[in-house]
Amino acid sequence: MLSNNTYQHVIFVFVTPEENCSYHKVLEYLNLTKDKDLYAMIRPVKNHRRVTRVYIKMILYAILDVREVDQTFVSYVWIYMKWFNEYIKWKPKDLCGIRNFTVPNQVLWKPDLTIEEMIEKDKAPPSPLLQIDNHGYVVYKNDQVIISTCQMHVYKFPFDTQSCNITFKSIFHRDYEISLSVYTNNTEITKWSRDNMRAQYEWVFKNITVQKKTEDSLGYNKTSVIYTISMSRRSTLYCFNFLVPILFLIILDMASLLIPDNGGEKLSFKVTVLLAVTVMQLILNEILPSSTETIPLVVLYCIGVFGLMLLSLMETIVVMHLMEKDSVSPDSEGDPTLNAEQNDDKMKVNCRNSLTAIHDDETDQNTPSPKKVRSMFALM
Question: pTM (2 decimals)?
């Protein structure tokens, strides 16, 4: 018998069987099996009038390429999506505290989101898993290489800044079925992308902005989430490999004014410099897109340099033609000074010829002929 001051504590311990602590029990509780295609075929709502809200987030991991001629943008991104499934709920205390786990992505319904600007599908397979939690939220994470179209503005090339869009939207569902929402703001997305950036090619990442756009689709509203990636080009290499050499070529063309015009060296030198500028223009033509609406400043710069060199070449050709014409033309009648100079030259030539003839005669007189020499030896 227990005394009044003695308290007896009885502790009841409920031990969950070991087999109830596996993920199989959770799947059995949720009735998630491959045979249950109903969960993957339709939107996970118990009332069709209820809207499925899909949260989306994109992080830029690398800028792989920007092709100006094709006007395409190649990027490597991480895509994060989250939505609510009304058929998936459980109490963690009933299943050994399990709060979340992963299942194959074929088991559950996924939003039919697509990227509007994508022109080529990623060759890598998508993520095979979905993560679900006890509250009914489904999370899908996938990394992929996106090859998308991007309208290039190359007016200030190579000091240009490009902005490329990546737009997510549903293919079939309207806003009364699926509502797209942005998971984070512009500042956080820019910070995460800058911290996780792996490669930037010849570009410098600036920021990412996200906005929602609603447009009419056959009488129904459809919302899109638009991510705008802004980046600026690294222009140092283009300056030293393209702009500065063209400047040096025009300086060489100006220095050719010191070459005399009476020979062909000046003309050949100018033609060589002009061909060098033409090669530079061909290289520029391979870089810039031909469908641009405005003429880039660098093209105007090359055309201006080419025009100045062409005028300089024409001036050299005209001067050499006039000099050649003057050298083969008869005596000019309208220029007395030129006639006087030509007469003086002729008089000098005549005098020189006369003196040469007189000198030859005196030499002949002083030199005895062979007959005279033989007669002199005969008398001896």
Answer: 0.74
